[in-house]
Amino acid sequence: MKICIAPGDGIGPEIMAEAVRVLKALDLKMEFEEAQVGGCAVDATGDPLPEASQKLVREADAILLGAVGGPKWDANPREQRPERGLLRIRKDLNLFANFRPAILYAELANASSLKPDIVSGLDILIVRELTGDIYFGQPRAIEIRDGERFGFNTMHYSESEIRRIGRVAFEAARKRNKRLCSVDKMNVLETSQLWREVMIELEPEYPDVELSHMLVDNAAMQLVRNPRQFDVIVTGNMFGDILSDEAAMLTGSIGMLPSASLDENSKGMYEPSHGSAPDIAGKGLANPLATILSAAMMLRYTFSLDEHAQRIENAVQKVLAEGYRTGDIYEPGLKRVGTTQMGDAVLAAL
To answer: Which residues form the Isopropylmalate dehydrogenase-like domain (predicted)?
Structure first.
């Protein structure tokens, strides 16, 4: 198994080190190659995805990413922003399907921003289309009309792109509780009208899955009103970006949540849902569990090693049950630990 490790920026190298320790403890035949992606690559080469890193990414079976970006690079030209490296990997490898689970561990119920009786048992999977929509539409443009500035970008999807992500979402729902909610804005956007039409056309192919539809503004409200009504949500790139972060906070900390971005052959890039947190970088305070759980998703989705993925997930569950907490999920009376100590606890649980 050839794995490209891209630690990235901020806390990325710290949390990545713990995930790699856990993977090596499984004693699987893995080959690791490290690539510079993001702000660190901009500093070193002027390019957020230099040619050498792009080569490693293309040749790997899977990519494990830490985090990219930070205020340090906010004033950079668009093509030298750290996030451009991430977007280029998604587009280059055609990683069109993003899986973002939002799972509330029982031990973290009090850390949620909602009452425990509303979020207890929460387990949602958001399937987000990742290579279309407004992020990959017409290049951003600003025009001046009558002395006033206007910003433009084009939101678009082809029928084949919608059909492709729809099939992935239906298949995901089949493996869970067989309920799929498609989120759009069809009452306003023509693109969303096409989205809904294609989802309805796909429905007869999956008679065992219950399909429902919801407008995105209502979906945002329902996630905080009654989140357990959802099983699998499928939506476009921009809506998915927003809703998945909202769902993440229901679980108590975005520092707990992994993600997977997959192509049609299950090659994937795996990364925590959180950012680079430059304010705590280098202090040993970051929560590595989302990155460790991303490594578990990698074993499951790219390498079909469900048993090993489950071992990691069970170890994380055990660590939480034993009271270990990094600062983002800490409660008085529990065991407050740093990044390395949390990694040690997961290894011991393994």
So the answer is: 2-346
State yes or no: is 206 an active-site residue: no
Q: Pick the catalytic residue from 47, 184, 241, 328.
A: 241
One domain for residues 244 and 269? no
pTM of the model: 0.89
Residue 217 is among the residues annotated as catalytic for this protein: yes
Q: What phi-psi label fits residue 334: left (phi over 0), alpha (psi between -120 and 50 degrees) or beta? A: beta
Residues 141 and 250 in one domain: yes
Residues at the binding site for substrate are: 90, 100, 128, 217
Q: Which of 257, 272, 298 is the last residue of a domain?
A: 257
Q: Looking at 245, 263, 318, 344, which residue is catalytic?
A: 245
Q: Which mean pLDDT values do the consecutive 10-residue runs of the chain (350 residues) have?
A: 97 98 96 97 97 97 96 93 92 94 87 84 94 70 84 82 96 95 94 95 98 98 95 96 89 86 94 93 96 97 95 96 93 95 98
Q: Is 43 tagged catalytic?
A: no
- Which of 238, 289, 281 has the alpha carbon at shortest distance from 101? 289
Among 211, 240, 257, where does a domain finish?
Answer: 257
